[in-house]
Amino acid sequence: LLRPEVPLRVGIVKTFSKIGDPSVLGTLLPYFYDPQLKVQNAVKFAFVEFGADSIPYLLNVLYNPVPQTQLAVLGLLEALQQDDSISPIIELFDSKNERVRERAVYTVSTFKDKAVQNLGEALRAESENIVINSIELLSRIDSDDSLTYLIPMLINENGLIAEAAFNAILSFGEKAGDRFLEILDKRDQTLYDSAIKGLVLLRDVRLIVDSNTSLYNRNNRNRLFILRASRADLLDYLNKISVSGLIVRDFTFIKDLNIAAALLIQSEREIGISGSKYTTFYISKKDFEKKAEDAQKLSFSYMRNYMNSKNPEDLETAKKQQEYSDMFKEAAENLDDQLRNYIGTTEEEKSLIHSFESSRNRILELYESVSLNRKNLADDILNIYNLSYKNIRDGQLALFY
After folding, report:
1. What's the CA gap between 210 and 5, in Å, rounded?
2. How far apart are CA 44 and CA 66, in angstroms?
3. Are 226 and 254 in contact (CB under 8 A)?
4. Entry pTM
5. Which residue, among 267, 265, 271, has the nearest Cα to 349 in the 3D structure?
6. Per-residue pLDDT of the chain in tens (401 residues, 90 and over written 9)
């Protein structure tokens, strides 16, 4: 092999390959770098001839710092298609050399289904490049196992990895829809948002076709969809599939009520944290209104007694109770004026009060605009936030009482 004649050296390499003794591969390995291309090719052919016996020798030089050597070894590993070479090749997904990195990805892709387990295990790697490239390759392999490996990656702390996994899952089409629906049915809350988003993008009509339960069942897919999807995603989905106007109306009603309830709770909490005068005014106003109402009832009661008995004391008591009622009513109106005009209130408090009142009024508007049947559903939605229509209407919210 040290002779200068190229034909002679090529012949020697071919002779070695016919001997059938894998130990000669150690002798041939240095000639991967032979300056003569014909000799290099003869050596590569010899490694292919030895099949699986070549793998340990090839893996020994796979991480050689010379990119040309790595590319040559990857070509041979592709030709040999030995399962035990997959994981070492995956390590090159993190190579700093772009050609080596791309060639490694392509080489693993040629193993197809045989690479699924190795790629799945590679998802635990610390390298972002290895994980993302493994995700991309799994998306090309139409296998249930690929999806099984990809689904948990949806909640990866690395946003790029989670997004890559989500896009990879979408490429499975209806199979991806099956997995997303399974997440909803199993009530796997950590994956709800991704599942709903995926079903929306897939325009999977099964998201709202759930004949076993109704909107009144909290475990219903429809309810999960409405409550967890953004309003924009909800409308986009409904507009792109064929559904009745009644469904669109019901779904948007629940969503709008849910949004208003969430905003009410948030603004209520922020008002409490801010120490706003609004809370004091509001409590006093409701207290005066209640006292005015009670005094009015007593006045009417004594007036009825007077009409029957003609007792002057009953008439006098009725007049006094009416005076009390008028006094409390005036006090409530004065406080109401303070609330409306934000007297003694900072700009921040004004904003919080406006948010609170807007949310409160929106809930009342929505609730009062629907039929009794839908009011029952609205009660159930409000109950999720420990709210009720009566308490919201009367101002009896947790912050104030």
Report:
1. 78
2. 17
3. yes
4. 0.62
5. 271
6. 567 677 877 777 676 777 766 677 777 776 676 767 787 777 777 778 778 888 888 888 888 888 888 888 898 898 888 898 999 999 999 898 999 999 999 999 999 899 999 999 999 999 999 999 999 999 999 889 999 999 999 999 999 999 999 999 999 999 999 999 888 877 777 888 888 889 888 888 887 765 444 555 555 667 677 777 778 878 888 877 777 777 788 788 888 898 898 888 888 788 777 766 666 666 677 778 888 899 999 999 999 998 888 888 989 999 999 999 999 888 888 877 776 666 556 777 778 778 888 898 899 999 998 888 788 878 888 888 888 888 888 766 655 44
Q: Identity (one letter) of the amino acid at 201? A: L
Helix (H, G, I), strand (E, B) or coil at 37: helix
CA distances from 228 to 196, 225, 233, 290, 349 (A): 7, 5, 10, 39, 30
- d(CA 348, CA 270) in angstroms, rounded, equals 10
For residue 256, what are the CA distances in angstroms to 86, 213, 355, 388?
52, 22, 15, 16
Q: What angle do CA 162, 168, 171 make, to 5 degrees?
A: 145
DSSP line for 248-282: HHHHHHHHHHHHHHHHHHHHHHHHHHHT-HHHHHH
Rounded CA gap, 282 and 190, in Å? 39
Which is it for the CA torsion 96, 97, 99, 100, positive or negative?
Answer: negative
Q: Do 143 and 113 meet the contact criterion of CB atoms below 8 Å apart?
A: yes
